[in-house]
Amino acid sequence: MSQVMVDVHGVHKSFGALQVLRGVDLQVRPGEVTVILGPSGSGKSTLLRTINHLEKVDRGWISIDGELIGYRRSGDKLHELREKEVLRQRTHIGFVFQNFNLFPHLTVLENVTEAPVSALRRPRKEAAGTARRLLARVGLEDKADAYPRQLSGGQQQRVAIARALALEPKVLLFDEPTSALDPELVGEVLEVIRDLAATGTTMIVVTHEIGFAREVADTVVFMDGGLVVEQGPPAAVLDTPRHERTRAFLSKVL
Ligand code: ADP
Ligand code: MG
Q: What is the domain partition of the chain in residue ranges?
């Protein structure tokens, strides 16, 4: 395994004239949890999306476990990967969205087995066994045959986490996984993420849950204006931030 699991190096990304990422550097070591904080529009989702190939970077590069994301190096040039290689790389990266994004016409079990069967060509029976084990892990073994609409938001998000885990990803990315939930359902989802952290899953979590960041993060990263403004251990960034912009943000969310 590479010393650095996720390596983001000088990443720039614009949408038309809007510069959304302006030279982001970020390193996540295996087994570590990085929590990204920052105001709306600061580029947090775009950063996660570039890591998961949902956006192409304009400048800079990203690697996962030593493998360049979206590119192959040849001499000092970067060549874009073909679609098939991109899809293969993406199977190493789990993504959990704010709005769950479950397949509505599939049962819970089918949601979790879909990608292993279609992308990894796992036998359906084996995939179903793994899925049941993962559903038990997120506390939903009794919901295997339910449809997403029959579940609460918190349960749907826990299925989405099981689905992401089914690909045995090298890294799990969460984009505000509890923002769409009623307040009483936030805890059960954070509990699952906390459990993953305790078992050494490498994760990048965008969230506004400061208490969770303090408790679970190895590193807290504060982004603003498309840049990493400040990063460090939770206590340093949350209790004694060095930058005025971090202080201003924290005073609003704490
Ligand atoms: P955050 O997740 O921190 O709120 P985002 O990464 O979603 O920030 O967005 C950063 C900025 O980029 C916002 O101004 C947003 O409107 C803009 N943006 C994001 N995606 C696109 C896109 N596909 N096309 C145009 N603008 C976009
Ligand atoms: Mg966002």
A: 102-168
- pTM score: 0.96
- pLDDT per residue as tens digits for the range 24-65: 999 999 999 999 999 999 999 999 999 999 999 999 999 999
Query: Nearest bound ligand to CA 38?
Result: 1
Q: Considering every ligand atom, which ligand is closest to the CA of 46?
A: 1
The pLDDT assigned to 60 comes to: 94
Residue having the nearest C-alpha atom to atom 14 of ligand 1: 41
Of all protein residues, whose CA lies closest to atom 21 belonging to ligand 1? 15
Closest residue (by CA) to atom 6 of ligand 1? Answer: 43
The answer to whether the beta carbons of residues 40 and 224 sit under 8 Å apart is no
From residue 187, give the alpha-carbon distance in Å to each of 62, 144, 202: 32, 22, 20
pLDDT of residue 75: 87
Residue 49 CA: nearest ligand 1 atom is 6
Q: Which ligand is nearest to the CA of 44?
A: 1
Say what the pLDDT of residue 160 is. Answer: 98
CA 145 to ligand 1 centroid distance, Å: 36
Ligand 1 geometric centre to CA of 173 (Å): 17
Q: Tell whether ipTM is more than 0.95.
A: yes
Q: 4 falls in which pLDDT band (50, 70, 90)?
A: very high
Model confidence band, residue 253 (pLDDT cutoffs 50, 70, 90) = confident
